[in-house]
């Protein structure tokens, strides 16, 4: 009797437990494939694209010029600009995306370069404080910053100017409230915010 029961639970050399286990794996595989998750082969191919730990060669469009450099994949955009391209106008304050001193433009939008990897930029256009001037003529906002003494230590100044210039590019007649909202992520430990606001409003009236 025991042998007959044991025999009825098997089909050929496959036990009922083995059959159910195999069916479960097949079903799970179908669900994974249907949900768009990577197959084992795709995951392997993805791993093959892993960069590092050594240096890699990248090209970047910075201030209208194609620049080439060899960097580690972990290099931030701020470090690449400062250490590899020697564009030290971009400052690193908190180095954690809180003070906005490191602000640059990527494709015309303000971005925190200390929180952006250089390899993420690829061929997108990067504009730094050095690229804001028109040849030998400084940007009108840079001029009003000087006129209104809107700097003290000057460390936060590049980020303030890049943020303010982006505001003026998109809003030719901003109100004081518009300026305050635009600068809400930029911090100055010296406390020059009132003069910064005055400089931006003055630049708007002259541009």
Determine the number of helices (DSSP H or I, runs of at least 4 residues): 9
Quote the distance from N terminus to C terminus: 99 Å
Q: Name the CATH superfamily classification of the largest domain.
A: Beta-grasp domain
Main sheet, how many strands, which sense, barrel? 5 strands, mixed
Top-tier CATH class of the largest domain? Alpha Beta
Task: Please tell me the overall pLDDT.
Answer: 83
Structural class: alpha+beta
Helix fraction, binned, reads: 40-55%
Tally of distinct domains:
3
Strand proportion = 5-15%
- Which CATH architecture of the largest domain? Roll
The low-confidence parts are: 4-12, 23-47
Order of helices and strands: HEEHHEEHEEHEHHHH
CATH topology call of the largest domain = Ubiquitin-like (UB roll)
Radius of gyration: 28 Å
Strand order of the largest sheet: 4-3-7-5-6
Shape: elongated
Number of strands: 7
Give your account of this protein's structure.
The chain is α+β, with helices and mostly antiparallel strands. It folds into 3 domains: 2-48, no CATH class; 56-131, Ubiquitin-like (UB roll) (Roll); 140-206, DNA polymerase, domain 1, CATH 1.10.150.120. Helix content is 43%, strand content 14%. The chain is built from 9 helices and 7 strands, in the order αββααββαββαβαααα. The chain has helices spanning 2-8, 16-34, 40-48, 77-84, 118-121, 140-147, 157-170, 176-182, 193-206, and strands spanning 10-11, 14-15, 56-62, 65-71, 103-106, 109-112, 125-127. The strands form 2 sheets. A 5-stranded mixed beta sheet has the order 4-3-7-5-6, sandwiched between helices. A hairpin with a 2-residue loop joins strand 3 and strand 4 (65-71). Helix 7 packs parallel to helix 9 (193-206). The longest helix is centred in the N-terminal third of the chain and has 19 residues, at 16-34. The chain is elongated and about 50 Å long. The termini are far apart. Residues 4-12 and 23-47 have low confidence and may be disordered.
